[in-house]
Request: fold
Amino acid sequence: MAQIIFSKKDFTKSNEKEYQLEYSVNEIGKGSDLIVERLTAKGDYEIIQAPLRRSNDKLFIIWDTPFDGRILFDL
Reply:
């Protein structure tokens, strides 16, 4: 599986309650085999169930606060 590592600063505020990461389907595919993991204080990754939204050729990963983590996906 391929991965993209992201940090808190990569999130943008989408409204007053949500932050999002934005990727194109060319970068990570359509999201069918997408795994979102958050980096813990111990340095391990934990799988989270982050909501996904699609708009045109964009995929948005939504969360209530920014966090460091990674996305695992099939190419």
In short: The chain has a mean pLDDT of 91.
